[in-house]
Queue: 4 jobs
Job 1
Amino acid sequence: MAKNKQQKKKERERRVAKKKLAASAKKRTQEKSTNESQKGVLDRSSLMKAAVPKPDRVVTNKKSTFTQRRTGG
C-alpha cells in the first residue's frame, strides 16, 4: 500500500510539473506576440514621424496675459 501511495504522489508531481511547463510556455508565447505587435506599431509611428519634418520653431518672448497687461505687472 505504501508503494501505491508513493506512485500516486509521483504521478501527481509529474502532472503538476507538466501543467506548470505548459502554462509558462503559453505565457511566453503570449508575451512574444504582444511584443511583436507593439514593435510593429512603434515602427509605423516612428516612420510617420520621420516622414513629416518638424519645422524649427524659434522661441520667442511669451505674450503677457490680459490680467498682466491690465494690472501693469
Job 2
Amino acid sequence: MSAETFCGTVLCFFIYSFLGWCCECVYCSIPAGRFINRGFLNGPLCPVYGFGALAVIHCLTPVAFSLPLLFVCGLLVTSALEYFTGWLLETIFHAKWWDYSNMRFNIRGRVCLLNSVLFGLLGVFVMRVLHPFVGRMVGSLSFVMLIWFASALTTLLAVDLFLSVRTALQLSGKLDALRDALEDARARTDAVIMEKKLQLEEQRALPLSDRIDRLLEKGEGLRLHERLNALAGSHNALHRRMLDAFPHMQFPRSPASLDALRAGVARMRAEKKERKDAKRDGK
C-alpha cells in the first residue's frame, strides 16, 4: 500500500467514524428529548463505525456483485466487530457499555439480530452508494492535503482517546469506591440489626436504602451517608457525558454502585435546574 493510499484510507476512516457518530446521536437524542453526545470518545467520532466501514469495504469487495451475499457478509463482519468491541471494553473497564439482553436473539447482550440486520443493510448502502461518493471525494484531494488531514485528525484522535480512557478508568474506580462504601453500609446495618434481635426479621426484609435511613435516624450512619453522597456527587462533565452516552451501561461487580452514581448525577442536575429557575424568577 502506497503512502497516498494509506492516507486516503485513514481519511475514509474518519469520515465514516463521523457519519456513524451522527447516526448514533440522532438515534439516541430523539427518544431522550435532548442532545446526547453518543460514543466512547468526547469528540464527534465513533471509531467502531470507521473500522466497520473499512472492514466491509476491504473484505466484501469480492462479493459486491451479489446483494444477498453482500448483506449476509456485511451482517457477519459488523456483528463480529461489535461483539469484539463490547468484549474488549468490558475486559478493560469492568463495565458493560451496552446491553441487548432484553432483545430477542442476542449473544451475551453484546450483539442482537435486529442491530445485526440493520448493520447488514448499512453495509450494502456503504458499498453500493456511499463509498463510491466518498472515494471520489477523497481521491480528488492532493497528496499533501491527504497527509495534513490524516496527520491532524490522527493527532486529535490520540488526544481524545487518552482523555476518554482516563475518564473511563476514573469512572470504573469511582464505581469500585461506591461498591466498597455500599458494602460498608451493609456491614454496619447488619451489625445494628444483630443488636436488635427482636427486630431482626423485620429489619432484614427492608431494602438497603431503608436500612441506611434507619441508621441516620439513630445518628449512627451520618459519616457513612456523607461518604456515599460525596462519592456519588463527585463527578465531572466527562463522567456525566459518558453516563449519558451509554444509558444501558452495567457494572456487574456492583449494580447498586452505578445506580447510586446515576442518582447523584440526577440530583445534581435537578439542583442546578432549581437554581436556574430561581434565578430567572428573581429577575
Job 3
Amino acid sequence: MSMFMEAISSRVFSNASGALPHQMRVGFPILVMVAAMALPWAQPAAAQSSDVYMCKGADGVPEYRNGNPGNSKDCKRLNLPDVVTVPGSRAGGASSGGKSAAATSPTSFPRVDSATQKSRDSERRTVLETELQTEEARLAGLRAEYNNGEPERQGGERNYQKYLDRVARLRDDITRSEANVASLRRELSGLKD
C-alpha cells in the first residue's frame, strides 16, 4: 500500500524535478490514516437515512425492515420524513433569585383570594376523606372475604382452579386497596390545615 500511496502522491504533488518534498511524503499517509479512522463516525449518519420497508409477514402481520428486503414482492418502501433532533432544555436549573422556575408564576397568571383557596382546600379535604372512608370499607370487606387466605367456597367453584383464581384475585384486590388507602392518607397529610 505504501507504494500505491507514493505513486498517487508522486503524480499529484510532484514538483518540476519529479521529486516530492519531504513534508508531503510524510504528511499524505497520515492524512489518509486520519480519514480512514474518521470513517466509522460518518456511518451512523448514513444509517439514519437508510430506507424503511413495510413487508407482509407469513401470517399477514406487517413487518418493518430497514435496508433492502431482497426479492420480496410484498414489500413497499415507506416515504418517511427525515429525523429531526432537538436539544433538550436544562432540567432543574435555578433562576437568579434562588427560587426554582416551577415555584414562580408569571405576573399575568390569575391570583385567587385566600377565602376562595380555603374553600377549595376544604372541599378537597372533604372529597379525600370520603374516598378514604369508602376505600377503607372496601378493604375491610375484602379482608373479611379473604379470611386469611382461606375464603369460603362458593357454589360455582366446584373446580378447585376457580377457587384458586378467586383467592388470587382477592389477594391482588387487597394489595391494590391497601396501596390506595396509603396514597389517600399521604395526600391528606400533605394538605394545609
Job 4
Amino acid sequence: MSNSKSINDILLCDDNERLEHLIQIFAKYQMAGKRYEAKAWHAYFRRIAINPVIFYQHNATLFYEDNQYDHETFQVMEPTCIHGDLHIGQFQYYFDDVNNERVLRMIHHKKIIAPFTWDLKRLATNLVLVAYYQGFSDTEIIEILHVFIRQYIKNVTTRTGKINLCRKYSDKNEQYNQLKSCLSHRQISVIGSTPIQHNMHDIDWKKLDTVASFIIFAEQFAIVVANSHCQPPVSISPTQYLIENNAEHCTHVIQTALSSKTQQQELINDICLFSMIYAEIAERDHRLFFKHFRNERIFNGINVLNRTRIPHPLADARSLSILIVGGGIGGMATALSFARAGIRVHLFEKKEEFGEVGAGMQLAPNCSRLLDRLGVLKQIQSNAVFPKQIVWMDALTGQRLTAIDLGAKYIEAFDYPYIVVHRADLFDALYQACLENSLIIMETNRAVTSVDERPKSVMVECADGTRYDCNMVIAADGLWSSLRKFVCDDGAP
C-alpha cells in the first residue's frame, strides 16, 4: 500500500492491500524482536483483539503512519508540544469531595512535537469507536464530536492568566521551590510530581450508554486536553523563564490557528470527517487482524497472506500418556527410564533422522550408575576410556596443583569408574536400547509448534497439524529449546 495515501484512499483500498500494510507495520514496530516467540505473540494478540476499541488504542504507530499523509482543509502552520498517543485509556478520574464532582486527569504524559490536531484526531476517533460499540447513530456521534471540539476551542481561545501566574515566580534561585508551590496550588501537572493523592479510577467506556453521559465525558476530555496543550507537562528546571516561555509558545500557536470563526469551523469539520472515516478504517483493520491472525501460533509476517484459511483440517487429537520432545541423549535416557518402570512413552524428534555429533564426555560414577540401571553401561564402556587420574594445573604456569586418583580405591568408594566416552557412542547405545524396547515409540520429522496446558492435560500441536492430548509433556530438545518459551519465555540461553 502506498505510503502517500489519504484517509479516503485507505478506506477505499481492497482488503489484501490493507492487510499487507498492517503486516508491515506490525512486523516493524509492534512485534520487533518478538515475532517468533509464541508466548509473546499470544499475549499481544489476545490483548488487542478483544474489540475494535482496544485494537485502536494499542496501535498508535499505525494511526500516525496513516495520518501523516492525509489532506486537511484546516492547516496548522507550526507544530507544538502534544501528547502523541491520546485515547480514553490515557485518562482516569477521581471524585472531588468538596465540589461533589468527577475530575479527569491524564495518567501518562507523553510529549512529542507535532500539529495539535493529531491529538484531537486520535482521541475523537476513539470516541467514535466507543459510540459505535454502544450503537449510537451517526447523528448522535456527530453531536458528541461537536461538543468535544467546541469545548476544546473554547478552552484554548479564552485561556488567560494561568501562564502569568508562573512568570512572577521565575526569579533565579527561588524558581524551583516557589514555582513548584504555584503549580501544586493550581494543580497543574508536573512530571514526577503528584500535588494531591487521590483514589483514581479507570474509565469504563462500556458504561457510556447514553448520549447525555457521553457528552459530559466529551466536555471533560476537551478541557483536560486543552489544559495539556496550553500548559504541557515539563520537568522543573532552574533555567529562567523555561516553563512560561514553553507554555506561551504552545498557547500562541494554537490560538493563532484558531483566531477566526472560519478557522474554528474548519477544525470542527475536519476532525468530525476524519474521525468518522478513520473509525471505519480501524473497525476493518480489527476485522482483518482477527480473521487472518487468530490461527497463527507465531507472528509469521508476510507469510500469512498465503494462508487466508486454516492451513490444515482440524483433526481430532490423539491421546498419549507421556510425550518426550527431543531425540537426543537426554530425551532417550528419559524414555528408557519410563520404559524400565513399565510406562509407555512417545518420543518426537524434529529432524528427519536420529543422530548425534560432538566431542567427548566425562561421566562421573553417578552417571554410570544410571546407565547401568538402563542396561546400556556395558556397551558404553566397550568404547570408553578409563583415566587413571584427574589433575588440576595452573593455567598460567602449567604447575601441577593437585590430583585425584581414579584407580581401585576410587571405584571401591563409588561403585563405578570415572570414564570418558565420545558423545556419538553414548547416543548410539541409548538409541539401540530404545529401538529394542516395545514400550518406546520414536518418531522423526515431528516439529512441535504449540503446547497449551489444559485443566487435565496438555495439548500439543505439530507443524503438520496433528494434535496430541497428553498427560505429561517433557521438553528435552536441548539448549536452544523451542518448547521452553511455552513454560518460561526468558529469551535465548
